[in-house]
Amino acid sequence: MTIDRSSHLKRLEDESIHIMREVAAEFRNPVMLYSIGKDSSVMLHLAMKAFFPAKPPFPLLHVDTTWKFREMIRFRDETARRLGLRLIVHTNPDGLARNVNPFEHGSSYYTHVMKTEALKQALTAHGFDAAFGGARRDEEASRAKERIFSFRSASHGWDPKNQRPELWHLYNTRIAPGESIRVFPLSNWTELDIWEYIRAEEIPIVPLYFAAERPVVERDGMLILADDDRLPLDPGQRPQPRLVRFRTLGCYPLTAATESPAATLDEIVREIMDARRSERSGRLIDHDEQSSMERKKREGYF
Amino acid sequence: MPTANPAGRGLLRFLTCGSVDDGKSTLIGRLLYETRVVFDDHIDAVTRASRRHGTTGEDVDLALLVDGLEAEREQGITIDVAYRYFATARRKFIVADTPGHEQYTRNMATGASNSDLAVLLVDARKGVLPQTRRHAYIAHLLGIRQVVVAINKIDLVDFDQARFDAIEADFRRFAEGLRFQAMVVIPLSARYGDNLTERSPRTPWYAGPTLLGHLETVPVDQDLAALPFRMPVQWVNRPNLDFRGLSGTIAGGRVRPGDAVVVAASGQGTTVARIVTADGDRDRADAGEAVTLTFAEEIDASRGDVIAAPDARPEVSDQFAAHVVWMHEAPLYPGRPYLLKAGARTVTATVSEIKHRVDVNSLSHLAAKELHLNEIGFCNLSLSAPIAFDPYEANRETGGFILIDRLSNATLGAGMISFGLRRATNIHWQALDVDKLARAAMKGQKPGILWFTGLSGAGKSTVANLVEKKLLAEGRHTYVLDGDNVRHGLNRDLGFTETDRIENIRRVAETAKLFVDAGLIVLVSFISPFRSERRMARELVEADEFIEVFVDTPIDECRKRDPKGLYAKADAGQIKNFTGIDSPYEPPENPELRIDTTSATPDALASRIVEELRRRGIIG
Q1: Among A145, B63, B389, B516, which is least packed by CB within 10 angstroms?
Q2: Active-site residue, B528 included
Q3: Which of B84, B234, B409 is facing A22, going by the closest CB pair?
């Protein structure tokens, strides 16, 4: 099954490809943030299309917190090998040395050190002047107002009140040395668009998105997968097998599973259409405080 | 959300605009709510936020679903463009929510540039306001031909038909001059949902469509594929020696293998060989599609070129007339160089003349010497190189451009091209046989400009005079252009406003360039306070011909010297726009030479400058 030429998916695809080519043509040293999730999978698929028959003229960057699901890491390495792309993996060495983790340090501090700081380190070390991210505007209120080409100061900060107007498909790509631009080619896609596109284009995704019996424990009403033996358990607590899947993938201690029997793409699409809770409701870090995403983004989070 | 054909839904992009408190955010919040885009956890969050920021008492304030950023929540207004998404069985919708505040014209223009349709909100109690007219005009200017006038808060006028009819008549009278293709007027209550997704029993007198019903069915493709073929080249695809393709998004028309095409600027022709995509070669591609073309005979084309139909080519010119929407706090000044990006091409451009400014409330034309934030002007532009374009009315993608500041890189404005200026194509450069190198060689020197910049009283003229004496003594051929002297003649019609200062420098720079062409060493001694004009002067000549000398004397020292008594007058308020006092001086960031007049004599400094000329090979 491929997508209808007149459909909204085709128009979204064309727009994303246009954005990627603009970056390849105008920036000296771009990189694609690859987070292994479904949105990254779609973004990477679009990049393969945008430059065909050439390969995408930029590497992939994965910020590894060391707390990702093991299946994600396996999938990441397989994907880079299958597509013949250069993959850069970066972990914050300072956070690693201090063993910063979501249990002892709290999700907010942990995210800051292992994700935001790590990302800034990698971008600075390689001198990337443009970085693709898979964020969508329908995910969260502060993202709805971010530009497709989102300017970042030399310290990677975002100023929501001082964004460049973005008209037609004319993107202002000019920056001073040290500054950079975050580019969001999936800005106009919704969660449903992503799933419909994955189904139509048969894009490989991490199996965790499909329902299976997995060992989980319940924490504050959230189902957490016991992905390895680093997950601290209460006395007498044992992971129980439950039929679950993930709507979004991140660090396993911070990403809740949902009980679901959806084991195929058709079933997932149907489930998304009927869903009554947003996908990021499974992300523990977003709930820390009101407007937490906007604050994180100003500090340099994607 | 039922989806009959999930892979085959169409797409409608529209924007909502209205004055403050017309209920835009509530309308979008309700559309999201009714089409079940809003999730329970978002509603929970909004219920929490309603208690803190809401304006609807005990009800959940649906507007809070839309007002995203913290600052906005606190001010209770939308301050930027926000994009929202929902879908029905028939269409996916992208909504640009743009603010109604007077000063935010730029955001609305931004939202309108990618929209097919505009929903204009009118408060039934207030009727058509100046802002309503402004929004209708901007929508029209940005090329939107489909308009819905939503007369909102109809519940607050007791669903009164006479009130509705009066507002509709008022709006139609105003909109006559705007040539909208289609206009639908709907009585609405965004808060309670009347005529939103279902016909309201409380407006039995209304026989038209509901808002959502109309959005789902309105025809929007003004058939871009029927336009002449255009593809701006974005990227040259060259993975190996056997493949060379040009990648881009088709901006108008359609293309098939075998079609004859030309490179618009050069007129070079060829035939399309293949339409290459990752999903296999195509036998046709239409406007809006991102493709890669290969050609039967190789052509000389790269990023920035436009591939076009040979029998319906775009205009190619370095001068055109356009409407410009100004989007920045720093005003637009005629003569100031900006970067212009159109399609995949970026060139230097200046506004050579503001023909008039448009008063968006009355649509009347006013005289203007500069353009301020949120103002719209009809301007002549002059570019450093010709570009290919279409009138904006014919094609939004090939007729629009943005203007960028060359120093801060901020996006300053957006433009819609009306027509090329023919005279540009008829004035050709006269090629001359004797050139500046020949003239300079006769004098045993290389021509160049020594550009002295600094505050009034810094010592520019003093040092420049000494340099000229020393050069003359060596038998060099020089000329001094002095700020005060030039203002007695060439520039005596100019004052000291920012606009006039820019023109002052432009004329001096062009004059200096002529002297360089004559083979002379030109000493220019002007305050020249703005970086962008000094940069313009620099770019008029070859890179090694421009030597910027920053006469860096602190203002306190200049004030103490005050050789012409000007600081005393300026401090007393008798001179306006005096550099360093009520007009800014932007010091050079990378001058070739910086001289400090407080630590050396003028003569010693002049000798240093002559040595620098020798080091640079200007003199032997």
Answers
A1: A145
A2: yes
A3: B234
